[in-house]
Amino acid sequence: MQAGFKRIWEALGELANNQSIHYRGTSAIDFTTTTLPHHGDYGWQTADSELQINCSGVIKIVGGGTGGLNNVADFAGAGLEDDGTNKLQVGEGPGIDVTATDVGVGLDSVLLSAGDGTPAAEYATLTLACAAAASGGTIWLAPATYAESFTVPAGVTVVGLSRADCVITGAVTVSDGTTLECLSIVRSIDDAGACNGVIEGAGDITATLNDVYIKVENATGEALAVYMANGGRIDATLTELRAPTGSAGYAVDIASGDFVHWSGKAIGTVAKLPYRKA
Q1: Domain extents in the chain
Q2: H or E segment at 4?
Q3: Fewer beta carbons below 10 Å: N end or C end of the chain?
């Protein structure tokens, strides 16, 4: 979603407490003037046409004159154009889904947004999104199962749209300033090595888990929902950690560092001993 579309959604936000606002122009009207309510800086002009912005998210230009859309160059590259018949055309873009009859803010893959919240690109996998992410960015997960292990870059937040429906089945390595939010990590293996859910990355890092569910099971080796060995700190809120099976199962295994479990549950294979610290 580029600058032009961002302005549209800002306009919709201003109309959040209204059902709709209709304005019919009888002459060329500059929508950047201060004479119109909710005018903002949207760069549109109409003549004898109707501009409709409805809270349902539908945006229409209804022909009725020859004004059409002017100042379209202001939206270059944003998927908006005047086709010469007074129609507003909307193209697919990051976070924008278009069907035969509807346009809406959608998410049918992994969406990466920049630090200012503007959607930047969509990716088929979390691994690709992490490779493109920069500090301050956010990776949004559509409800799906993500069968991949990956490292979240420093300063990047990964957010699921539903903790129950956004499920990662690989190990997630967190970096300094990383946040995981509203998602699940569920793993089950049969391996002599450890089955880890979240792994502390290298360096003296700080990371955050918020509203995260982690369950790891290992038929042969250890099961460790969170593993820390690099001297950093991880804070967890509203987070449930389970390691119910394994030669040894721990909600948190700390070889070096600090884990602060502010709220949630912690379950291991040994009753009342869900944490292990060297």
Answers
A1: 3-101, 110-277
A2: helix 3-14
A3: C
